[in-house]
Amino acid sequence: MLFDLHVHTDISPCSRLAVADILRNATYRGLDGVCITDHQTMSIRHKIREGRQPDGLMVIFGMEYTTCEGDFLIFGPFENIPGDLSARALLKTVAAAGGAAVAAHPFRANRPVSDWLIQEGLCRTVEAVNGRNSPDENRQVARWRNAYPLSETGGSDAHTLEELGTVVTRFDRPIHSGDDLISALKNGHCQPWQGYRPPLANALPAVSESDALL
């Protein structure tokens, strides 16, 4: 299964990607699922249902959480998580709740993830390929790959429709729920995968957000 694990909707101030455009185009870009990971919020839950959409697309809610020691994609019951946690406190909170955390774009020049978080085993799942990173920033993950037992993912970090699905994660087992996703991430049943760009579905009937509303 192919999932884009790192997608920002226009709920994030920096993104121009409408929810309806994600729903309309994801399957036509070869995706089985998308994870909505807006900055510091899971308010997407007020706009659409989590889970299987009318066209079969699986939508799972997460969050990109920013700390002084790096950014993390978190998955689990974190709608009301405090917004000012340190990386250590965040990762311990995620683990205690049975969730999963992914070190996002860990070698991005202006927002790297601190090495000690990986060295101490607080986070062992990393976004090895990020669609907005430079090739060199993505290659630097090899420093950790050769030293620690890591699970690796890929994500487009889409903020526009053109970016959706350009980098994805391939899972070697079905993902039918958030719990399935968390288990696969924790147990290494995933790998980064280069996505592709079939034509945008401009001529196709739109999937209305109302079809997926709560």
UniProtKB/TrEMBL annotation:
<dbReference type="Pfam" id="PF13263">
    <property type="entry name" value="PHP_C"/>
</dbReference>
<dbReference type="InterPro" id="IPR016195">
    <property type="entry name" value="Pol/histidinol_Pase-like"/>
</dbReference>
<dbReference type="InterPro" id="IPR003141">
    <property type="entry name" value="Pol/His_phosphatase_N"/>
</dbReference>
<dbReference type="Pfam" id="PF02811">
    <property type="entry name" value="PHP"/>
</dbReference>
<dbReference type="GO" id="GO:0035312">
    <property type="term" value="F:5'-3' DNA exonuclease activity"/>
</dbReference>
<dbReference type="GO" id="GO:0004534">
    <property type="term" value="F:5'-3' RNA exonuclease activity"/>
</dbReference>
<protein>
    <submittedName>
        <fullName>Histidinol-phosphatase</fullName>
    </submittedName>
</protein>
<dbReference type="InterPro" id="IPR052018">
    <property type="entry name" value="PHP_domain"/>
</dbReference>
<dbReference type="InterPro" id="IPR004013">
    <property type="entry name" value="PHP_dom"/>
</dbReference>
<feature type="domain" description="Polymerase/histidinol phosphatase N-terminal">
    <location>
        <begin position="3"/>
        <end position="69"/>
    </location>
</feature>
